[in-house]
Each structure stands twice: as C-alpha cells, then as structure tokens.
Amino acid sequence: MRFRLLKRNLLALLLVSFVVVTLLFLSIVSDGDESGPRDGGARAGETVKFNFGSLPELSRSVYAANYKQCVLNAERFVGDPQLVLVVQVHDRPEYLRLLIRSLEEAAEVHRFLVIFSHDHFTEEINAMVQGITFCRVVQIYFPFSTQLYPKEFPGQDPRDCPRDVPKDSAVKTGCLNAEHPDSYGHYREAAITQTKHHWWWKLHFVWERVHVMQGYSGFAVFLEEDNYILPDFLQFYRSMVEWRKNSCPDCDMLALGNHNGVTDFTRLSNKVSTTGWMSTKHNMGMAISREVYYKLMGCSSEFCTYDDYNWDWTLQHLSGTCIPKPLKVLVAQGSRVLHTGDCGLHQKGNCRPEWAAQKVEEALKVAKHGFFPPSLALSGAEAVEHKAHMKNGGWGDVRDHSLCNNYAKRL
C-alpha cells in the first residue's frame, strides 16, 4: 500500500511538472521574436489576438498574452500609477460591466493601473476589457484553467473518482485519485478547486511577473468581477495609507470593503478600525503590500496543502500559525466596495444582474453625502489573535497541492 501511494504521488508530481514545462515551452515558441519585453518592459497598446478556434490555439494565445503583457492606454497615461487594482474575472460579463462602469466613474481614475486576471476566456469579456480607455490596463490569464483542460487535470479527468464515492470503493475501481479524498471523504471537483488555484497563481504572477509592477511600492487592492467601487475610492485609499503610516505601522493589510453595504454610510464614512484579519469580513477590497506577499509566499506549502478550497479561509488559517504574528488589518467602516453578485460558485440559477444595477443606483443615492471625507477617525481597535475555524475540505488531492506549490517557483 505504501509503495502504491508513493507511486501515485510520484506520478502526480511528474504530471504536474510535465504540464508546467510543456506550457512554458508553448509560451516561448508562440512568440519567439526578440521584440518582446525581455528587458522587463511591456509593449504599450499592442494586444495579442486571441484565437478561440481550438484548445491548443487558445492555450498559445494565453501564453503569448502573459508573455507580452500589453499595457493598454500607456501612451495616454504616463507616470507611475498611484493605485493598482487586481480583478479576478471568471464568466459573469454582466457584473464585470458594472465594475468597469464604477471604475470609469471613480475620481482620478487616470491614476489607476487595473490588472484583470482571467480564468475563463471569451471574445465578449476580452472585448469588454480592451474597450477601456480611461486608465492603464493589463490582462493576465490563468494558464491552468479548467477551460484549457476539460478532460484532464487540472480539469476534471473522466478517470477521476466521483465526489461522493467511498474510499474503499474508489480503491477497488482504481480511479486516479482514490488514495486522496479530502478530510470529509470527498474527492476533488475541478470547478471548486479552480478559484483557490487562480487566486494563488495571480498573487504570485502580479508581484513577480507583471513587468509594470516592478518598482511599485504601494498596495495592490484585490477585487472580484462582481464588485463595484465607490467614486472616492482612490482618495480613501490614500487616506488609509497615510493613517496607517502615522497611526498603525504594524497594520499588515487594508480592507477598503466590508459586507455591510451602505448601511449608515454617511456616519461611518470617515471611520476606520483595526483588528485581526478574518476571511468572512475582510476579503473584499483587500489591499496587500509586497512585504505581506513575501510573508504569504513563505507559507506556500501550508497554503497549498491546507484542506480548504477557499483561498480566504486558508489565509485565515495561516494568520497566526505559519505566519507567527496574526495579520492585522486596517478596515474601512464605510465600505468603498459594494458586492453586486447574486450568483457565485455554488449558485448558478436565477441570476438577475439587472437587479444588481438597480441596487447600485440606490446605494449611490444613499451614500453620496458621505463621499470624500477630509480626514479619518479611529472607531475601534480589537484584539489581534488567531481565529481557528473548521476547515471546509475540497482540497485533499496531492495533484492540487503540487500544482499550487509550483506557482511560487521561478520557472
């Protein structure tokens, strides 16, 4: 049994290595000219034409785009960005359109650099992002998307064990991952694991590989496609950075959003608080510095093997365990990020994005008198401590562990 387990682990590692090396080779040969950004710069305005005709062509397009890293609107907006936003995009174009509208209406948006990180590739979404003219834009593409691997790992291999089959039955049938259910006896679902994979890959790629990020010393604010930023987002971000510098130098992260919407927004507009980072409260509009990125990457093994398919619950687990001092966060009490999505990972039907647009309009009317506060005030300071929780499972497959750990390596 031990030999068979070792053999399966070795095969999984070999498979992951083969995938990584093969795709890296494709990324190089798909754009072999010497005019690419080998000096660390990116060509401005020149986009990669995506070919959606077949999976190999789409894969080559993904790698060519990640290699070239075209900066849209770079000639129009010069100088260093004052704020970097990183948006994780899947396949909800109606919500993404709302987010883009909020960006366009934000004050001083020309000072933004917005990085869109995609794990689902469509002409509609590409055209939507490439149609942005009001700030600099970079698109990056998760190269291990289940869309590119529909019938093999990291997608769902038909030889994989069904989610709910008992382990003894799985071992008897010889399905690929029989020895590696999660903590609750369930086998991996590719659609469930992708979000955590994408988030960890994106974190590494943004800080290590995106050329225009080299030398950037500010925070990167992480958003999702169903977020909507308020008009004073940049001004409030600046105020939080300055307040942190003067009053909370040990605050590791910023949270520009919360899940309370615009409830009592005018009163709370200038209020901030400090506390320990919690996944259910501080995962929206989360701002991470390069220093905190290094702390997280030092815990790559723990992140990649912790049996929870949620990146944010995994992050909370690291805070106070692998990262000895729990992460401290400076939180906006008046959220500068609204959550518009009524559909997500576990809910696919009855999505009504038109309701989201209506709710946004109503929220803006409620909040408008609280925008652009002249200064910030501390409303509370809670103890910073490790918050243990029951892990959610969904992340027991050694192939996921191996692939995840590869993102932090210089390939």
Automatic annotation (TrEMBL):
- Per the UniProt record, which residue ranges are transmembrane? none
Name the Gene Ontology molecular function terms of this record: alpha-1,6-mannosylglycoprotein 2-beta-N-acetylglucosaminyltransferase activity; metal ion binding
Q: Which UniProt keywords apply?
A: Disulfide bond, Glycosyltransferase, Manganese, Metal-binding, Transferase
Q: Which Gene3D superfamilies match?
A: Spore Coat Polysaccharide Biosynthesis Protein SpsA, Chain A
**SUPFAM superfamilies the UniProt entry points to:** Nucleotide-diphospho-sugar transferases (SSF53448)
Give the InterPro entries listed for this entry. Answer: GlcNAc_II (IPR007754), Nucleotide-diphossugar_trans (IPR029044)
* Taxonomy, superkingdom: Eukaryota
Tell me where the signal peptide lies.
none
Record-linked Pfam families: MGAT2 (PF05060)
Co-factor requirement? Mn(2+)
GO BP term, example: protein N-linked glycosylation
Write out the GO cellular component annotations. Golgi membrane; Golgi stack
Which positions are annotated as binding Mn(2+)? 226, 339
Binding, substrate: 88-92, 119, 194-198
The intrachain disulfides are 161-175, 248-251, 299-322, 304-404, 343-351
User: What PANTHER family does the record tag this protein with?
Assistant: ALPHA-1,6-MANNOSYL-GLYCOPROTEIN 2-BETA-N-ACETYLGLUCOSAMINYLTRANSFERASE, BETA-1,2-N-ACETYLGLUCOSAMINYLTRANSFERASE II
Name of the featured protein? Putative 6-mannosyl-glycoprotein 2-beta-N-acetylglucosaminyltransferase-like
Lineage of the species this protein comes from: Eukaryota, Metazoa, Chordata, Craniata, Vertebrata
